[in-house]
Amino acid sequence: MSETSQQDYTVPLNADGTTGSHHLKTGSQFTIVIDRAIETLIIGEDEKPLEGVAISLRRDDDMELLAVSDGKGIARFSKLEKDRKYRFSLYARDKDAWELIESTGAGGDTRAVPTDMEWQSISTAETTRTKKHIVQQGECISSIAEFYGFFPETLWEHKANKDLKEKRKDPNILMSGDEVRVPDLRQKEEAATIGKQYTVKTKGVPERLVIQFVIGGEPRAKEAYLLTVDGVPHKGITDKDGVVDVWVPPKAVHGKLVFLDSGAEYDIRLGYMDPITEISGIQGRLQNLGYYFGPVDGKPNQSLEDGILCFQNEYDLKPTAELNDRTREKILKVHGS
Residue-wise over 145-181: b if at least 16 C-beta within 10 A, else e? Predict the structure, then answer.
């Protein structure tokens, strides 16, 4: 007489190798597959998953395995040995560029980047002197920091960049040819347990882009817009002050904003504004404010003098058509940066 009723059998099917109760039919043939895994979920400053972030998993014999987060922000390390000790870190990222938020049970059916790579010996990088990065047009501290794996504030506040900070004041407004000193990355690791998922937040990625739109001296308040930054669309409505506030990658360079009701368009070049101390910085700001219509080339011209004079009259400054400290300060204040 054959058994046909279901009974409970305790079998080790969980990701961490522990046992669980599962319904199996007596006499059935089955294969038990134990997938001992560790997962990482990578999110950005905006709390959304980040794709393409490299994670290093290391075990107690100093062997290393690398994986990259998928479209859901997940990297999964599978087929791990139960009796090993593990630790993880974000690969090629400074210790201040990421933080562990929480750990939970690993997602059961989640599958991300396959880990069919072989474990490799941990490479020991030689300590080098601080590197020198020459700023190119369109770069700022945020984009440079992301390239080298740093939190922007770490670079900006580093003692080797003291002179640059005093000269430029604003980390988002540098001049082509400026020198940024880049120190060695400092490693940070977190212990990892099989069967767990670790949520990690990157710091400084993405970053906020905040722009105020004004027409005729009044903010473009509560207007629907479509902002496309490097091919990625952002739809929204300006706030009461005419401000657009969105998250963008630090390396973003070009944007286009369209106000949907009026059809008005604005081209936006990110990282291309020169410091206020430069003629090109004055030209760029007065152009944005609607007082200058000439080229942004760093060369004085009649159109620039006319723009300065018009600005001075508008804001009750002495109308000299010449640049002075009060005029520079007022342009900077009105422009916002």
Answer: bbebbbbbbbbbebeebeebbeebeebbbbbeebebb
